[in-house]
Design goal:
Elements (H helix, E strand, L loop, with lengths): L1 H16 L2 E6 L10 E8 L3 E9 L1 H6 L7 H8 L5 E6 L9 E7 L5 E8 L10 E9 L2 E7 L3 E8 L10 E5 L5 E5 L5 E5 L10 E3 L4
Length: about 210
């Protein structure tokens, strides 16, 4: 019985002293050139290391943290970062979880992965506590399902101005590409019959 108490005490101490750091995005997608507000939660960590890398959407899916191997992680580390910084965190020495906010500089349109660790980069996949995908774009797409298919409204994320010529695409269950283009008012319709369904929409406008 004493051994059980000792084991429980060790686990309790381990839990209290456990290091923890994670990042959360306050807004996503982010308008082009706008800084990104990042909320950092941490415990028993004095410094966080941030690394921002540009990726394609296909790469972002491949680099999901849940399935990250060391080999895959080394491929991610090989991508040249557009931003890298160490952040000093207030050390209150109370073994409790705390949080603070940090600004990531604005970036051009594209897809990005934000990596956070309590160890300097390059580090191991296990030491990289978080890999977060986010998109930088000035396009905001609103959609609603109708009896005949879908209706869309594409606007500028900053100004609210309608976007003419935005191309919206999806695929049906036979992997056939379906698309429509917005008019001067930013509106478009996509007709779907009973044998088709939308698997998610992508939108392109002026190389975004």
């Amino acid at each position: 019985q004493n051994a059980d108490y000792l084991s429980a005490a060790k686990e309790c101490i381990k839990s209290i002293e456990n290091k923890y750091v994670e990042a959360y995005l306050e807004e996503e997608p982010v308008p082009v050139g706008d800084p990104l507000l990042c909320r950092i939660q941490y415990k028993n960590v004095k410094r966080a290391y941030l690394r921002l890398v540009p990726v394609t959407y296909a790469q972002s899916v491949k680099f999901r943290k849940a399935s990250m191997t060391e080999e895959l992680f080394s491929t991610l580390l090989a991508i040249k970062p557009v931003y890298q910084k160490s952040v000093d965190l207030p050390d209150l020495q109370d073994y409790r979880k705390h949080e603070g906010f940090y600004g990531i500089p604005g970036q051009p349109a594209g897809n990005y992965l934000l990596m956070i660790s309590d160890k300097p980069f390059p580090c191991t996949a296990n030491d990289c506590r978080e890999v977060i995908y986010y998109q930088v774009t000035d396009i905001a797409l609103y959609q609603r399902e109708t009896i005949d298919g879908w209706e869309f409204l594409a606007v500028n994320r900053k100004t609210g101005e309608p976007l003419e010529g935005a191309r919206i695409t999806t695929t049906d269950k036979r992997d056939k590409k379906l698309e429509c283009v917005t008019g001067p008012n930013g509106l478009a319709q996509l007709q779907l019959n009973g044998s088709n369904y939308a698997s998610g929409f992508s939108v392109e406008y002026q190389n975004q």
